[in-house]
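Suppose a colleague, Dr. K., hands you the sequence of a protein chain of 322 amino acids and asks what its three-dimensional shape might be. Before reaching for any lab equipment, you can write down a predicted structure in token form. Begin with the sequence itself:
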Amino acid sequence: MSSEKKQEEKARLHARNKNRERYDLSALIISIPELKKHIMPNKFGVKSVDFSNPLAVKLLNKALLNHYYGIKNWEFSDKNLCPPIPGRADYLHHIADVLGENNFGTIPIGDKITCLDVGLGASCIYPIIGVTEYGWKFIGSDIDTKSIASAQDIVNVNPSIKGKIECRFQKNPKDIFQGIIGKEEKIELTICNPPFHSSLEEAQRGTRRKIKNLSGKKVKTPELNFSGISNELICDGGEYKFIQNMISESKKFAKNCLWFSTLVSKQSNLKGIHQLLEKSETNQVKTIPMGTGNKSSRIVAWTFFSKEEQKEWRDTRWKTRL
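The predicted structure, expressed as tokens, is then:
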């Protein structure tokens, strides 16, 4: 690979990520012509999308889904979180590698693999990418009825994912797996992008920093450039408390799920999370670094299954079914 090609690659994205290189803006404009109005030179003088504008961000991500994943219909309220596609895809590629380690290095594909997305959101983004990339079956849970309805609408109008994603309403906002995973249900993976702010003020501070980094502009009361209603971005106790509850509840479903996982945005939370997992008597914990552009995060995955039990899961559920 030439040095010029290397420079065009986005820092540290997974090797299978379709957006590993710089965006092909010409192709994306063909997919979503309206995007053209939001292309302008960035602070380095290079043509780019205006990432400080929520509408521009949403149009970019619609174009990415259309061009790279064949999703023609992706409509949801502007009040909801608009997820950045490359980062969401990275999570799925990395967690797919974890399943591959249980399968002689080959990622299991097909609709016999079930993945639960905790916090589905109105955009249904993780299931969309997981179905189109790996053919997995998805369950998506959410505490917001409007988000569930929006995600179901997206599933219904896109033939490539219709019938492959089940949207389940979480009636108790304090529960994560209880009320969603059936008593005898078996799931290969759970994924989650938890709300990571503990207050609106904290969320706005983060957005102010982001806008300043992207455009050099100082904004006193910013509009969140990836949008997001409060329960998508904010929870009591922030990211750490949410993950603490998830780990505690995962013990109750230790034999229902092969691998639990969550995104951890804040490095400062990692030590405490590892301590919680050790106290929970997990059999194996993986911490997987991720990065998109200037942002670093990580996935923490854990299982209550021993190596022998993991092998038995593979042999009984995958060997003859994939």
